[in-house]
Amino acid sequence: MDHYEEVNHTLSFKEVLDELETFMFAGHDTTAAAISWSLFALGNAPEIQKKIRDELNEVLDNPCEQVTSKHLAQLEYFNRVVKEILRLYPSVPVVSRELDEETIFDNCIIPKGTWISIQIYQLHHDPEVWEDPETFNPDRFLPENNAQRHPYAYVPFSAGPRNCIGQKFAILEIKHTLLGILQKWNISSVLKPHEMKLKSEIILKPFDGNIDVHFTPLEYIIS
């Protein structure tokens, strides 16, 4: 039973419309950004690309087979890769919340009605939480490493009752798109991570607006 059922309240037309707009239109830019940053990250990590393809080839009957949700559940390494990319490059680097009650934080009283910003990018790059935070390391998300980490140290889709309504759909889009590309192409990036300047708007963007990568056909794919 959800919140609205508990309080005997149905969604108004405007509330339904707001949820639909959030799901469809807000998800358009954020998912595109996540895929773009994924290509950039993978373009700087050929060894990770190889591991993904090796794992994929163990799951598929042939390299050209279309990936299904059943396959995705078996791709443990690839799933960690996607999580790590969203840690490095969260599509929405900052979210804001209005406090609905007075809150005490770090011995400071924050009044009801105050707007606070949650700096997701900084949280995901906090060296006190993430060892060597700028390094692309999917094994951060091995079960034994997850167990030692605060559950809110990693929030690429925000958290709580107002987290991203479309996160499961977005993850499926990202995974299927990336695997479709990796089945046919090798990716290489023009810039290295330390050369890429970032810009925080509603969406995390490259400072000059471009993510330049090269695609080279894989030799075992027959067009």
Q: Provide the gyration radius in Å.
A: 20 Å
Determine the structural class based on helices, strands and strand pairing: alpha+beta
Rough outline: globular
Biggest sheet: strand arrangement: 1-4
**What is the number of strand segments?**
8
- The parts where pLDDT drops under 50 for at least 5 residues are 1-5
Our estimate of the beta-strand percent is: 5-15%
- State the distance separating the first and last CA atoms: 50 Å
Whole-number mean pLDDT = 88
Largest sheet: 2 strands, antiparallel
Element-level helix/strand string:
HHHHHEEEEHHHEEEE
Subcellular location: Endoplasmic reticulum membrane; Microsome membrane
Cofactor: heme
Function: May be involved in the metabolism of insect hormones and in the breakdown of synthetic insecticides.
Pfam family, one: p450
